[in-house]
Amino acid sequence: MQCPYCKGEAELLTTKEFYGKDYGNHVYVCRPCQASVQTHMGTLTPQGELATRDLKDLRHMCHVELDPYWQMGYMTRAQFYTRIKQVLKLKGNRGSHIGYLTKEECERLLRAHKEGRFCLVPFKIQRKSARSFQRQ
Questions:
Q1: Per-residue pLDDT at 133
Q2: Which one, 14, 46, 73, 96, has the greatest CB density within 10 A?
Q3: Nearest to 31 by CA among 50, 55, 58, 54
Q4: Contact (Cβ atoms closer than 8 angstroms) between residue 53 and residue 98
Q5: 3-state DSSP call for residue 21?
Q6: Which of 7, 72, 77 is nearest to 35 (CA)?
Q7: Could you tell me which residues are beta bridge partners of residue 101?
Q8: Taking the model in full, what pTM does it have?
């Protein structure tokens, strides 16, 4: 996997090697950039694109702010990702998962949510605070 930041080759590590704890999957890591991405469980397929800490934090905030739309049944998960693509005007597979969004796309998505442009049906989300979500 090529790093989008420095164009170097990312190294594949176990989660035990990267985090010090075995979560049963792997992590692609670009050591010079400190960018990384986990793999799907039981595969070497990345869950998104390599990301720096700042981008990971933005993607995490997108999940915290927006996942309740599908988790609480206001839309299906498929509708949720279709809506992301509509709001961001993305084509093809872009937007098929938050793990593939760029910094700018995450910022636009969070702004759309804050301005009430994400959900077409208004409702109040009862959510946990961002601190209560576990992050790896």
A1: 43
A2: 46
A3: 50
A4: no
A5: coil
A6: 7
A7: none
A8: 0.80
Q: What six digits make up the tokens of 113?
A: 């949510």
Both structure tokens of 98? 């938050």
- Answer for the pair 109, 115: CB distance below 8 angstroms, yes or no: no
Handedness of CA 85, 4, 61, 73 (dihedral sign): positive
Summarize pLDDT for 89-127 with one digit per residue, the tens: 998 877 778 999 999 999 999 999 999 888 765 555 455
β-bridge partners, 36: 29, 51
* Residues 20-40: tens digit of each pLDDT: 999 999 999 999 999 999 999
Residues 6+ apart with CB under 8 A from 111: none
**Distance, CA of 21 to CA of 5 (rounded, Å):** 27
Q: How confident is the model at residue 57 (pLDDT cuts 50, 70, 90)?
A: very high
